Amino acid sequence: MRPYCYRGRMPRVVDHEQRRWEIVYALWLVIAQHGIEGVSLRHVAAEAGVSMGRIQHYFGTKEALVLAGCTSLVQSAYGGYRETADAAPRERLLHVVSQQIPRDDAGRMGVSVWYAYVAKSINDSAVRQVLAEARRGAEEECVRLIRADRDDRADLAGAGPGDDADDPAALQQARRLLALADGLTLRVLVGDLEPAEAVSMLEAEVGRL
Amino acid sequence: MRPYCYRGRMPRVVDHEQRRWEIVYALWLVIAQHGIEGVSLRHVAAEAGVSMGRIQHYFGTKEALVLAGCTSLVQSAYGGYRETADAAPRERLLHVVSQQIPRDDAGRMGVSVWYAYVAKSINDSAVRQVLAEARRGAEEECVRLIRADRDDRADLAGAGPGDDADDPAALQQARRLLALADGLTLRVLVGDLEPAEAVSMLEAEVGRL
DNA sequence: CCTGTTACGATGCGATCGTATTGCAAAACA
DNA sequence: TGTTTTGCAATACGATCGCATCGTAACAGG
């Protein structure tokens, strides 16, 4: 996002990514505490301890800031998933569906922000596209994990992997798991359900594959 | 909510409930189209074709109006459920969990508004209490329906009803069904899932009880 | 040192917000 | 026919909003 003709000149060197991240994190705090309604450039600036001018400099408009907060949230979740790369498919599957269950205050904040964006996505097409892409990615990854897990167990039984055509059974399983995880997450978030119970329900569901 | 010493004097007779409902319906339209962020007294007044003064007269403050829209939404859903009073438990159960799946534009509007309130409930304790009470009611009703359905089938097999102690199995089934319905509803709402597929998944889930 | 570019704080503007206030028309009662 | 009470439209007000603009400090290259 530099000027079109960047040739190495950059006075006043600062870490742009660091600055942007500080502001996005403050944005998340504001959303978690006051909802998306409570987001104003002044509030975010105060929470981050910076001036409004800085936010304008790095994000331009409020809409761009809010959207950047959404993409950062998605990428942060994806980063957490990649750290499980060397686990068994079944463990990774359980991580995908139960990672969002809020267990501590940090988790509560993340999932509060996520739900705020979900609601916003109903009326905001840019946010909707970001979340739709993330959901499609999660769905496809779940399908892969379900098939990998099934193949693992088929190998134990001496059979080869199934056909590679699209797998409606696995797709439906994935959708069911993810939808169930979303619903349980909400109930934990509003205090209607204990985190442990939600996780154990998801474990049971994954175990029945 | 009349003056404390009402003795039948009431000039300028109007139907208060009708007036309130017109305003609440306009509020729902605004929420469905622009989200809760887009709610302002002026917008709602314009959508309802009335003056701001009337909204102030009937609801006082914006916060009270938004909360009234929430309780009206809950009661409207409850009214829809009571119309199924003379159906079999299993049919009623399917209605409870699949009624919120949006099938037409009216359904989409209702569930958009509902999701907006869900997100708001994270930071608004009054809304949270209304939704929590509704959720608890739905959960208890589902438990009743699941047990009634089970007893029906036990009667066919010649056995009596089970014990009346709290039923952890039925409770967990109810929670799982409702959470799954919430997650599927969201996916249909944002266009990631066809309504028919969501309903058929819920039918399969209810059928496996 | 000089010049150019970047980073960003400070400030101002017009729009919009929720709400308090005011005033008046219509209807019930005296 | 007043009088009173209600229903509501109109408007005024102060706060807050997003954003544009301006000024300047910091630094790189010449």
Fourth-tier CATH superfamily name of the largest domain in chain A: Tetracycline Repressor, domain 2
Annotation, overall tally of beta strands of chain A: 0
- Uncertain parts of chain A: 1-10
Task: Give the H and E element order of chain A.
Answer: HHHHHHHHH
The amount of helix of chain A comes to over 70%
Protein chains sharing the most extensive interface: A-B, 39 and 39 residues
How would a textbook summarize the main sheet of chain A? Answer: none
- The residue-averaged pLDDT of chain A reads 91
Which structural traits does this protein have?
9 helices, 209 residues, DNA-binding, Tetracycline Repressor, domain 2, Arc Repressor Mutant, subunit A
Give structural notes:
Two copies of one chain form a homodimer. Chain A is mainly α and 209 residues long. Helix content of chain A is 72%, strand content 0%. Chain A has helices at 16-34, 41-48, 52-59, 62-82, 89-98, 105-121, 125-156, 168-189, 195-207. The longest helix of chain A has 32 residues, at 125-156. Chain A is elongated and about 65 Å long. The model of chain A is unreliable at 1-10 (pLDDT under 50). Chain A binds chain B through residues 33-38, 112, 115-116, 118-124, 128, 131-132, 135-136, 172, 175-176, 178-184, 186-187, 189-193, 201, and chain B through 33-38, 112, 115-116, 118-124, 128, 131-132, 135-136, 172, 175-176, 178-184, 186-187, 189-193, 201. The structure holds a DNA duplex (30 and 30 nucleotides).
